[in-house]
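Q: We require from you a single protein entry containing the residue sequence and its fold in token form, and nothing else.
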Amino acid sequence: MYIVILGAGHVGFMLARQLIAEGKSVAIIENDPFRSKEAVNSLDCLVVNDSGTNLAALKKAGIQKASAFVSVTGSDELNLISCGIVSNQFPEVSTIARVRNLGYSETSLISSSILGIDHIINPDLEAAKAIVLALKHGARSDIMLFENTKIQMRDLFLSRESSFIDKPLRVIREECRIEFLISVVIREDYYIIPEGDTVLKENDRIYILAEEDSFDTIFEKEKVLNQRIEKILIVGGGTVGAHLLDYIFNEESLIPGFLGALKRFLKRGKKNIHVIDKDYDRCKFLAERFPKALVKCQDIMDEGVLDDSETAGSDLIITTTGNHELNIITGSYAKTIGIPKAIALVIRNNYKHLAHNLNLDVTISRNSTVVNSIIKVLRKGNIKNVYDISEGKLEVIEFSLSEKSAVIGKRLKDIKLPEKTLVLFITREQDTIIPYGALKVEVNDHIALITERESIKKLENMIAG
């Protein structure tokens, strides 16, 4: 697979690095000479310092032999135009455009008859979806969902008071008396694929695989309360905040029924969704568009804003400003003054570790959600979900097996999986199967596994056949 990326900003750089680690061939086109130089010095790929709308530059990057063209510059217009040029000149190349302005994704301008763009990725909408997903499941932890099963994966930070500390996993399982699997342990800057005798330590972050009901038992034991959410404070009324409000108040226009669980928590007839933003014009726009919300024009950095009795009485704070440091600090401070739960939006994935250490319940990385969405499109095989762990060193992948797959009919113990790859579960029709060596995989099985990024290429070949 050969992929041409337009834009070497944070997303383009992160995407290229991930694809290169998987063994894919990558070329980057970047107009800025400083970013181009940084990419040349840091990435093992071809870098072309030129404009993405220049056909000669596209050919120099090898677009004629590419499987996909991904445009992730900071300009929606450039992303759309460059994808349009590639689609017109090289119709066999799949095109993916990052577009921030939601209006573009609703207009006929991106229909196949005009620009021929195959996929539109909206970073702010993807971030809002991730926040809503966390809300829907109680905002108690980061969450990974899978298709056709009640099984989820969630993370848990082990503080000094944790009952799991200094105990081997087999003892913890016996004490909890429920079915669950601790699939990964993040300790300092490395990860462990644990076994029954692995002993957990203070400050470990563990990733737990279990059914949703079982998490109630685990979180209760760890004193992570399932706080009833009746009043929500949103700090930041930008595009992510606006998309989030759209989900809360007008979800039928985006994803029908997506907020069914959250709706039960919201009291009808009361303005229990509060929004704070320092831009007057933005506040006026939000107040007119969402009359059921209470919108305040305030600077969250001003003294006393969060200490206001009405604000401090919130059950949950969601920080979605364009400043990720401010989002982390505001969410952390809100917890100290009594707001039970906090969700923070960050730009880069490496801020998630800092946020978790500051007691935030959920951290959403906008760049990570965009890259994962793009990776899901690019992967060979029937990839359903992709999640990264430990700053991208590990990935949780869910895929379905087609009849062409090389592993159909084989027993799990006979499949030569890459080292440090663990099959988490298999979903067959509506049944979830805990893997065992003699289990044979069948057509249309959904398999969820965790693996190192360097093993992705081998797995893709096995999946696709």
Observations:
- The chain is about 30% helix and 25% strand.
- The CA atoms of residues 32 and 38 lie 10 Å apart.
- The longest helix spans residues 76-89.
